[in-house]
Write a structure and sequence with these properties.
heterodimer, A: about 700 residues, mainly beta, Immunoglobulin-like, 7-stranded mixed sheet, 6-stranded mixed beta barrel, 4 helices, 55 strands, B: about 170 residues, alpha+beta, 7-stranded antiparallel sheet, 7 strands, about 25% strand
């Protein structure tokens, strides 16, 4: 303080001096001579976030302790003149809270100063409720410590709060006598709130629980072995309920699986895995028949491994012969061989069987094999539907009805394979049900003698044998079967019987190949017929060097039909339009209505003179292209009477409106069958080309 | 549907087969709707409605009288997409049935008694063949052909055709 700056005349007594000194102190400015009196300013703080029961102590420049017991604003007792520095700090934090200072440090500049003090909770409590305790005491631990004895049911809080963001873990320290307590919701991370949901449940009941299984559908004379947690085995020799021998404590897991399937059946576990939560557990096991169910009298065939595949892999022989049934005359039926294997097996571990004399049928879709010809050791699994029941199928031809189960197989045709596709197992009892649904009418053909073949390979224009069956229950098609009966049902895409060609893949690489159709070649047959001819089927259209498309493409409608203008020419004159016409290697003659052609007593055409040359103009279903073709018709009974003719240009009348170009049409021609939806160089199927 | 005279089938007592149909038809009328297969071909025109219900065709049969008024064609559309036509004379006799569509209809239902005849005839076929069947006799004609997704066929009683219709008209 520079006395020399004070005005003279102010110097009086000491007391007055002290007073004056104070006044002078306040009044004098710093440096320079000023005649105006100097001002001081307050330094204060505004506290927020303090919870009611705590207090915070602040300091300014390390002194002037200022205590806040509640949120609010207050000033330090010492004021400061302009130019003085202030530094507000927290001396003592409130219990369980952390206060931080903002705008607390600076220089007084002709104005009062207010620092901001923001407080927030820094720790939270851990608590919950105990129930079921009776009589005795349980101790709880938090993070292994803070031992808290509890003697009564109700809520509890640990005395040590946990810092925000830190973990807590409540466990039982010591159990009450005669009871077991366990903790749920006992661990986690504190996240800006007290924990109040730790549940401690005590019970006098047994602390271990049993796992039992209920088995249904098990056939007699067979057994299934279940296993829990990969160690505890339980064998059932009959349907019923039983417990696994090992009981499990609360919180431990169970996992029930089938260790050994029964012979000829597959058992499936439902709700087989979980965690024991204070109660016994029951697991359901449903068994259903899977293996091919051969009728008595079947010659047993030992399965072989996958046969050596031919090269090229996409060509197989097509043989027209008398068929596999001695003494049963047949004419114009072309046969191929197929190999079926247990799906999912390959190479030397595969179980396969080659079936010969399977009819090559461009008029149907899907592989159908007589169960009586299949080895029971193939174990082709039964297709099961969404209810886990077996699937039965009825397929009605004009003459003959095939009834059987749907099974899955790897189907090899030449060097092509269709993996795990649904096939029709003719004569097999789905789910062991031995009846036939009453609406599956017609002459049942489930024997070689009745069918005249060992099976039918349907390689026609479509992928599935029934599209509408996926969305609609259609009588006499697919069924949901149990041991007690079959009811008509829809079928899913994974159970519907499929054209194997559409599913062909390379057996080694698994790459899809040659799956858009096939080419059929047979040699010409003269008017005297033939005692046997051999042609070929080549799979794929334009997919290899040996199957390029040739001829004219005739698109068909969604039913596989195109138009035959019988005796119409491709120029002008129209004949009789037959709009439901089709090519069909599975038909054994030319079938069309012409009342001017004589018939024999057996119903076949017997034109005289013979042969009779006829013509027709075929077109795609839209009416184009129109290309005239000719064909030859012979006196049928002449060939039949020879007794050994298996191929000939015979025909018979059918309803008007349809020309069925059967196998004789294929003699001396190259015919392509393009599958619906598949791309080829000639467009997208369905179409015939020749 | 206009009132139809009760069953009598054929003026002449013809063959034993037709007599048997008469007895069956009378039995059906007497017992009302029973669960046995109802003879449609050769039966009373009122059996058409039964056929429709058994085969679950949704809509009532579409009726088209012939130009001459001698007969009426009843057409029902099955849920599977197959169309069934039944031809009934003005005397109330179903003398012809035809079908066309992706699935073979319930032939047991619409052929009635003649269904067993069809099965027996097919069993007699000496040559392997699954795709077509044709039988022409004085008392019964059955033609059936086609392949999965497309079937067509017809059956009629030649002796019961009313005047003014030829087999060509039955499609």
């Amino acid at each position: 303080m520079d006395w020399t700056n004070c005005s003279p005349g102010w110097i009086v007594s000491i007391k007055t001096l002290c007073t004056l000194f104070l006044v002078a102190l306040v009044g004098c400015g710093g440096g320079g001579g000023g005649s105006t009196p100097s001002l001081t300013y307050t330094v204060g703080a505004t506290v927020t976030g303090l919870n009611g029961s705590t207090s915070v102590v602040l300091q300014n420049n390390g002194g002037s302790d200022l205590t806040f017991n509640a949120n609010g604003t207050a000033n330090f007792s010492a004021t400061m003149p302009s130019g003085f520095t202030y530094d507000v700090t927290v001396l003592t934090q409130p219990t369980g809270e952390t206060c931080t200072v903002t705008n607390g440090k600076g220089t007084v500049t002709n104005a009062n100063v207010v620092a901001s003090i923001t407080c927030s909770q820094s720790t939270y409590t851990i608590g919950g409720a105990v129930s079921g305790l009776s009589g005795s005491q349980v101790t709880l631990l938090d993070n292994g410590g803070n031992n808290t004895p509890i003697s009564a049911n109700g809520s509890f809080v640990f005395s040590t709060p946990i810092a925000n963001g830190s973990a807590y873990s409540v466990t039982v320290g010591s159990q009450p006598s005669g009871q077991t307590c366990w903790v749920t919701y006992g661990s986690g991370t504190v996240s800006s709130a007290n924990i109040t949901n730790v549940a401690v449940v005590c019970s006098s009941a047994a602390s271990t629980y049993s796992v039992s299984a209920i088995v249904t559908g098990l056939l007699s004379n067979t057994s299934v072995v279940l296993q829990d947690n990969s160690a505890d085995n339980l064998t059932f020799t009959a349907n019923g309920t039983a417990n696994f021998s090992t009981t499990l404590s609360n919180g431990s897991t169970y996992h029930v699986t089938v260790l050994t399937q029964p012979t000829g059946e597959t058992c499936t576990v439902t709700n087989g895995s979980g965690t024991i939560s204070g109660a016994n557990v029951t697991v359901s096991v449903a068994c259903a028949s899977t293996a091919a169910n051969n009728p008595a009298g079947t010659a047993s065939v030992t399965p072989t491994t996958v046969p050596t595949l031919p090269t090229p892999g996409n060509v197989i022989p097509l043989v027209v012969d008398a068929g596999p049934v001695a003494g049963r005359p047949g004419i114009n039926v072309g046969f191929v061989s197929v190999t079926v294997c247990t799906p999912g097996t390959s190479g030397t571990t595969a179980a396969c069987q080659t079936i010969d004399h399977v009819v090559l049928d461009t008029g149907s879709y899907g592989l159908r094999l007589l169960n009586s010809q299949l080895s029971s050791s193939l174990n082709l699994p039964a297709a099961t539907n969404v209810s886990n029941h077996a699937v039965g199928e009825c397929l009605q031809f004009v003459i003959g009805t095939t009834w059987g189960s749907v099974r899955l197989a790897d189907v090899y045709v030449g060097g092509e394979v269709a993996r795990s596709i649904p096939i029709h197992d003719i004569g097999d009892h789905p789910a062991g049900y031995s009846g036939i649904p009453t609406d599956c009418t017609g002459q049942i053909q489930d024997t070689q003698t009745a069918l005249g073949a060992n099976g039918i390979l349907g390689v026609g224009l479509f992928v599935k044998d029934c599209d509408a069956c996926l969305t609609q229950v259609i009588p006499a098609t697919y069924y949901n079967c149990t041991a007690s009966g079959c009811t008509g049902s829809t079928v899913t895409a994974s159970q519907v019987v499929k054209n194997p060609v559409a599913e062909f893949q390379n057996p080694v690489t698994g790459v899809v190949q040659d799956n858009n159709g096939e080419k059929i070649i047979l040699p010409a047959v003269g008017s005297g017929g033939s005692t046997g001819i051999t042609g070929s089927v080549t799979f794929g259209i334009g997919t290899q060097t040996n199957n390029a498309l040739s001829g004219t493409v005739y698109p068909t409608d969604v039913y596989g039909n195109f138009i035959t203008d019988y005796q119409g020419t491709n120029n002008l004159s129209a004949g009789t339009f037959m709009s439901s016409s089709f090519l069909d290697s599975g038909s054994n003659g030319f079938f069309f209505k012409d009342n001017t052609i004589a018939t024999c007593a057996d119903g076949w055409y017997c034109p005289s003179p013979s042969p009779l040359t006829l013509y027709a103009t075929n077109s795609g279903y839209t009416g184009s292209p129109r290309v005239q073709t000719s064909f030859s018709l012979v006196y049928a009974d002449t060939l039949f009477n020879l007794g050994n003719i298996v191929a000939g240009n015979v025909g018979a009348p059918i309803s008007i409106g349809s020309f069925d170009w059967g196998l004789p049409f294929f003699y001396g021609r190259t015919v392509f069958v393009a599958i619906s939806g598949k791309s080829t160089s000639g467009g997208v199927g369905p179409y015939w080309a020749y | 549907m206009k009132a139809i005279q009760k069953v009598n089938l054929i003026q002449k007592p013809a063959t034993g087969r037709i007599m048997r149909m008469l007895q069956l038809g009378m039995l059906w009328m007497a017992t009302g709707m029973s669960s046995i297969a109802h003879a449609s071909l050769g039966g009373d025109a009122s059996s058409i409605e039964t056929d429709r219900m058994v085969m679950r065709a949704e809509h009532a049969a579409k009726q088209t009288p012939s130009p001459t008024g001698n007969y009426t064609v009843y057409e029902i559309a099955l849920p599977s997409g197959t169309l069934v036509r039944q031809y009934a004379s003005s005397a109330g006799v179903v003398f012809a049935v035809t079908w066309k569509g992706p699935f073979i209809p319930n032939l047991k239902q619409i052929l009635g008694d003649h269904y067993q005849t069809l099965l027996a005839l097919q069993a007699q076929q000496t040559l392997v063949g699954h795709r077509s069947f044709s039988h022409h006799a004085g008392d019964l004609v059955i033609e059936s052909s086609g392949h999965p997704r497309s079937f067509v066929g017809r059956a009629y009683l030649p002796a019961a055709l009313p005047a003014g219709i030829t087999p060509q008209d039955i499609q």
